[in-house]
Design goal:
- This protein is an all-alpha fold.
- The protein has 2 domains: 181 residues; 79 residues, Winged helix-like DNA-binding domain superfamily/Winged helix DNA-binding domain (Arc Repressor Mutant, subunit A), CATH 1.10.10.10.
- The chain contains 12 helices and 2 strands; from the N terminus they run H-E-E-H-H-H-H-H-H-H-H-H-H-H.
- Helix 1 packs across helix 4 and helix 1 packs parallel to helix 5.
- The longest helix has 37 residues.
- It is elongated, with a radius of gyration of 26 Å.
- The two termini are 43 Å apart.
Length: 265
């Protein structure tokens, strides 16, 4: 559950806490969180209609939200009382509104998938939101905290914005590490030794260069161009050049043919 909704769910709780601490009015007419919710819905609606090849949530979490968070961090760096800082405060609620919508939509999708029971998901969400709101109200009633509420809330929001920016980077790093551990573990040490022996035999038989042999060892374990480039600390174009040379020397035209050749040794 945490792997699916952790990022937006944490933002939903931060939003609940911030709203509990202090209410902000816009032009003495309505609360800024109301404006943020309305604008957030307007932003999310066309976003949900985008036609992209990759899953929408990957684009939202890895591109859209980090870009928004970076913009808010930059705007929050301006002094209090400036137009940029006022704009940052207003856009922060729009950002939290988007986070809230994503959190609720993710939780609804989880309930629809029936991996967890609906009462558990919605009950936990309401309980956590109420707890965060109560905590914010409690802190807001303390005079020492209320006097410095603005800067404190700014620090809390900025910390979450930083978390949004770092989350996809940490996730990508962990996936690479998990992939490498899985490849190393494989079916056991004997299977990996046998695979290495077959790759070495193919490299010797077709007279591959040392760098081509290194590249083949990663190709044979299922790694892609980007992973090989990062591991060998060379450019992706150089890796592609080595791959083309390997394909030419081995007289194969696809990854499947390459793996089949390695299996035969």
């Amino acid at each position: 559950m945490a792997s699916v909704a952790a990022l937006p769910f944490a933002g939903l709780l931060v939003f609940a806490f911030v709203m509990g601490v202090r209410k902000f009015m816009v032009f003495d007419a309505f609360y800024v969180e109301t404006l943020g919710g309305i604008v957030a819905a307007i932003v999310v609606l066309p976003l949900s209609l985008l036609k992209i090849d990759r899953p929408l949530m990957s684009f939202v979490y890895q591109v859209f939200l980090p870009v928004c968070a970076i913009v808010l961090v930059v705007l929050n760096a301006f002094p209090f009382g400036t137009v940029a800082q006022w704009l940052a405060a207003t856009l922060s609620y729009v950002f939290y509104g988007i986070i809230g919508i994503l959190a609720l939509s993710s939780l609804c999708a989880m309930a629809h998938a029936r991996e967890f029971s609906s009462p558990f998901i919605y009950g936990l969400t309401v309980a956590c939101f109420m707890a965060a709101s109560f905590l914010g109200i409690s802190f807001g009633s303390v005079s020492a905290f209320a006097e410095n509420a603005g800067p404190i809330l700014l620090v809390i929001s900025t910390m979450y914005f930083g978390f949004v920016v770092l989350a996809p980077l940490l996730s990508s790093w962990r996936r690479e590490g998990a992939s490498e551990r899985e490849v190393r573990r494989g079916d056991g040490g004997e299977a990996q030794s046998e695979l290495s022996r077959r790759i070495e035999a193919v490299a010797v038989r077709f007279e591959l260069s040392p760098r081509e042999t290194e590249t083949l060892s990663y190709l044979g374990r299922g790694h892609g161009i980007v992973f090989i480039a990062k591991t060998l600390v060379i450019s992706e174009s150089t890796v592609r050049t080595h791959v083309k040379s390997i394909y030419r020397k081995l007289d194969v035209s696809s990854r499947e043919e390459l793996l089949e050749l390695i299996d035969k040794g």
